[in-house]
Each structure stands twice: as C-alpha cells, then as structure tokens.
Design a protein that fits this description.
Chains A, B: Belongs to the zinc-containing alcohol dehydrogenase family. The structure is a homodimer. By secondary structure, the first copy, chain A, is an alpha/beta fold. Chain A has 12 helices and 17 strands. Chain A folds into 2 domains: about 1-155 and about 315-365, Quinone Oxidoreductase, Chain A, domain 1; about 155-310, Rossmann fold. In chain A, strands 3, 4, 5, 8, 9, 16 and 17 form a 7-stranded mixed β-sheet that branches. Chain A has a 6-stranded parallel β-sheet with strand order 12-11-10-13-14-15, sandwiched between helices. The termini of chain A are close together.
Chain lengths: ~375, ~375
Amino acid sequence: MQAITFQQPYKVLVKTVPIPKILQDTDVIVKVCVSGLCGSDLHVYRGDEVGIDKDTIMGHEFMGIVNEIGSNVKDLKVGDRVLSPFSNCCGECFYCCRGITSRCEKGQLFGCLKNGYGIHGGQAEYVRVPLASSTLVKIPEGISDNTALLLCDVLCTGYFCAENGLNELAPQISYLKQYKLEYQKKDEYDDIVVVVVGCGPVGLMSIASAIYLGVKTIYSIDSIQERLEIAKEFGATPIHLIDENPIEKIKEITNGRGADIVLEAVGNLSSLDLSFKLLRPAGVLSSIGLNHSNTFPFNPNDGYHKNLKYISGRCPVRQILTKTIPFVLSKKFNFEKIITHEMKLSDGEKAYEIFEKKLDKCVKVVFKK
Amino acid sequence: MQAITFQQPYKVLVKTVPIPKILQDTDVIVKVCVSGLCGSDLHVYRGDEVGIDKDTIMGHEFMGIVNEIGSNVKDLKVGDRVLSPFSNCCGECFYCCRGITSRCEKGQLFGCLKNGYGIHGGQAEYVRVPLASSTLVKIPEGISDNTALLLCDVLCTGYFCAENGLNELAPQISYLKQYKLEYQKKDEYDDIVVVVVGCGPVGLMSIASAIYLGVKTIYSIDSIQERLEIAKEFGATPIHLIDENPIEKIKEITNGRGADIVLEAVGNLSSLDLSFKLLRPAGVLSSIGLNHSNTFPFNPNDGYHKNLKYISGRCPVRQILTKTIPFVLSKKFNFEKIITHEMKLSDGEKAYEIFEKKLDKCVKVVFKK
C-alpha cells in the first residue's frame, strides 16, 4: 500500500509498504478513506519530537472502514464506518475511568514509533488500530467523511480547550449569579470575554466550540488574513496580531482588565506570553498548543499576583467525542470550511511543504487515495 | 500607641506612634485584641517585597473591637467584635462581585505602604480600616480571639488552597461516578490521594480543610518534626522531607502514578519542583505560597505532557469566610494548636527573629498587648 513515511527532519517520503496485519486479537485494520495532516505532525516533521524512527508512517488523524477484525474485538464488525482518536485507549485503566483517555496507561499515539516501539500512523491506505473496541467510534449518519476526520483531533481538541476555560471560570459565574440579582436573569456566559490566540485549525474549532457552549463575545488573534476571515465566519471578532495591538484592544473592551478566558492554540513562547498578558486577574489560561518551549514567559510570582488558573495538556478525544458528536450533528457550523486542501497520498511530500510553509493559503490538508 | 514598624530588611522596631484617626467616612478604627505574625510578613521583613516605606506598621492579621466609626459605615457599631481579611475590599467592583475579593479594584494590603501609598498594619494597639463595611466581619459567638485571628489569613488561605484543588478535580470524579457503578456508592473523595507540601500554618490549615471537605487520604511533607506532629494530629500521614523519600513513597501508594492533588504551601522553587514531581498526570497543583521565584521548575512541555492544572494566587478571604466561619463553628479541629507563641507587642523585634529563624519550635506567633 502507499504510505507517507518519516525519513528525517523536513523529509517525508511516499513509499510502498506492506498492508498491516492483525497482531493482537484486539486489533482492527481500518481501510482509510480520509487522513489528515495536523499541526502536531509538523512537530515530528521538524524533528521537535526527537527519536521518531525512520520509515514511521505519519499521521494521527484518520477515518475509514473496518476491513479486518481481531477475534476479541467487541461492538465492531467488518464494514463499519469508524473514526479514531489520535491516540488509542483501553477504556479500563485509572485514567480512562476518569475521562482522561489521552493518558491511558496502555495508550499510544498513532504515527509515533520510537526504537521500534509504538504504532504507525494513518497517512496510508490501511492502518492497524490496537485496543480497537475502546478506541474506534462508529460514525453516525449525517456526518461526512471530512467532518469525521476533523473529529479525530482538531475539533475535539478545540472543544476541550474551550470547555476547560469555561469550567475553570464557573465558580466566579455562580458566585455572581448568587449575589447579584441582575445576573440571575442573564445567560451564563452573557458577559464574559474570551480571546483565542491563534486561528489555525484548533483555534478555529475552539471558537466554534466556545460559541456552541454559549459564549457571546469572542475575539480571535492571528497574523494570517484568511484565517481571521474563517474565525469571523465562525462568529469571532478578528484582531490582526501585527496591524492591530491586541493587548490594547482587549484592555479597551474590558475596562482595562483583560480577557476572562484566553484560549491559547499555538504552542510557543510568544503565544503563551501574549496569552498571559491578555488575561485579567483570576482569569483562565487554557493552553492547548503542544509547546516545546523550555521555559514559561511568566513566573510563579506573576502567576500569584494574577491569581492564575492555567490548564494544559493532551485532549482526551475518546471522552470528548461524547460531546462533539452531538455538537457536529447540531449542524450549527460548517467545520469543513477549514479544509483548504484535499490531496492524494502520493502528493504527501508536497503537502507537508505547503502546510509547513503555509503556502497557498493552506489551513488544513486532508488526504484521499 | 505601641506598634511594630518596618525599618529595613531584617530590622523591625517597636515604636510609640500616634493612634490612627478616621480619614474617610467609610473608615473604622479597630482597637486590636490579637494580631498575628504571618509567613508573608517575613517577605516584607526579608526585603523580598521591595519598597515598603520605613516606619510602616507591620502585620495584616488582626481582630479586635470597633473603637471609632466613620459617618458612612453601615452594619457596624462601636463595640462590635470584628476580624479583618488581610486586605480590604469594596464589595462592589468587578472582582468583588465574582468572589475575588483579594483582587478588589480598591483593595489594599494591610501593613504595606509604598511611597506613602497604602495602609498600615495590625501589629499595633489600633488600626484604621478603610472600606470597613465591606471588609470587617463580626465574629459570631463561640469563636475565640485566637481562632478569629487565624481566620484573617492562614485558615482561609489553607481552605482556599484545598478547595481549589478539589474543585479542579471534580470533573474527573463526576465522570468516574457516571461510568463506573462501583463508584456510585462511594463518597466523592474516598479514593483520592492529596499531598500537602509544607506544614507551616497555611499547610496545616489546608490539611484540616481538605479533611473537613471530605478527603480521607492525605499526606503532609515537611522537614520539621513538631510541624509534622501537628499535621498528624489534624489527620495527615506525615512524611519527613529529608529522612524519607516523599516522591518514592507517594508513587508507591499510588501504583506509581503520583498524587491526585498537591497542595503547595511553601512558595519557593524547590517546593514547587517537588510538588510537580509528586503530581500524577492530569492531577491538580494548587499552589498557595507567595512565590518570588523568577522561574518555574517545569516548562510548558512538561505541563502539556502531564495535562497540568495549575492554580495559584492570593486568597479572597472576605468571600472564603462565608465557608470557614461554619467550618470553625463545627468545632472539628483545635486550630489554636498551631499558635506556639503568645507574645507582647513590645517583644516585636524578638518575635520576628524567633519566627524567621524558626527558633524555639515556633509555628505561629500572635501578639497581645
């Protein structure tokens, strides 16, 4: 079969490789219909994630059809249309039982082999899914292949980022409703100001999610005009990172306080720095971008004096899907708008270059055979 | 009147100064019965808090009797027995309305004058309390002077630290109860492991608070034996920082995972480092110690890979008192156990030395005339 494989930093190669086989009785082989190219694939591509084996099949976003099934796989059959979270999970360990499926004790990231250990990715014609019963999710009627693909990572990750921000702010809002009569009539999030830093796929999904969850006032910051336009279509007020002064603008809107919640969806030092500066005292910094910085742009003293709430980490997609599937079925947003490029697996090398360099107004690339 | 005044780093001086007068019609003058010496007074004492004016009256913990009252003060009268949060608040601003009274737009810390701006502290015979109606709280029957003094800061701060940790963990527990039948019968916090780093007054109060809030399994770490003994009396299992290996011990207890919640009640780089290492993935790090470190001992990448929830900041005492007054009235703990030294204001200089150097098994000093 064809597969996009990692060779060395900044070099992937489309290769013909053997079709994966069932290795354990809990495995499923999925025939891939659509796979995605995700921002975190670029961490691998750039060599930030050290030690990925040469010839690892790339990609952790894929949906398709169950093609072959281990003898001990439950609730799935050949022909089922399924999507996969970007990491698999057992559904039974300490973390899975607490909804933190992304920290499953047996979980592995797709497209991440180190010293022979790990599992291949989905940028291929077929992919082996271990722990399939507790990992794969059947795709309900009314969800397209492309939208199902977005559920594998970016849509759930954006939702998780927004939900975390809102959960952390909840005690302040209940206090307000309890002690201020005029707020008892209002909707929960009528008066909060949310800022999204970064309008890549995850940032855009976090905008849609925040609005779906009831946020009325949301600003989005990026330096790429076409991304700001999609953010606007999703309901955010765009702020250009360079042409405008985001901090001044947000302070102006909030009587000098800063945002109640900042959703940081980039994952580098400067985006985290900007996010912290945009945040009001006792606000919530929900940071979802995988961040390889070796330091924080703020210190514990800054955090103390801001009464900081900081929440970060890998999205537990399998758990979040119980909320994002109804979200998608609500048909409130055309999520596929972010898919700017449908390409063939055979164009893999070119696709990585386009996405990495943000050429041709690229927001999101998906692969179809 | 007598007052303990700041002169320069590591030098306070007991002086005779004028009795404060009403300056605004919302002021109250409190005749102090008991004032406290708090760990954060040591930040001032050591000169960590730069720019405190010479002759500032020290201290932000005090309780006493309303002695004089401004013309516009409501709900208080001369003779009322009152306690004060360590900072005052207006009760009306954006932050006060959200329960973040410690970030009140008009709030000031007691015992903190910089370039003539600010308010004097409570280590004196009298203290002026601006915004008195929304700051001072009448002390109910059945709460002693010493216990009331502990409510001004350390007891509320410890409670805030514990409550934050438990609030952040709540979604995981509700998920567990929803999806695992055997957990539906259990109490909410039956199975969680909490670790308190630092058994100073705030750490000890956070132990009592966590237990009051339902925690069954709690470990406390310190290097001072007599503090570990009080922690044990409050219901924690003590771990000696030096003689034992806290990280190994907690990993052992939690099948190698780490603690669900770490309550960090010291406020320096090494305590924060230990706290992070003690924490399991997707655990909560509730850090209450005022921390002057200029860097975090972990980085955003570490935080991401641990799905870190980090919460810190100054306790909103005025709001927390609505919960800690019933807590105190429950009589479940003898909080005064932490008061190892009752001294006279005239012994101020000696008291700071004893407390700073932890001489004579000192945990907490209070002053009475």
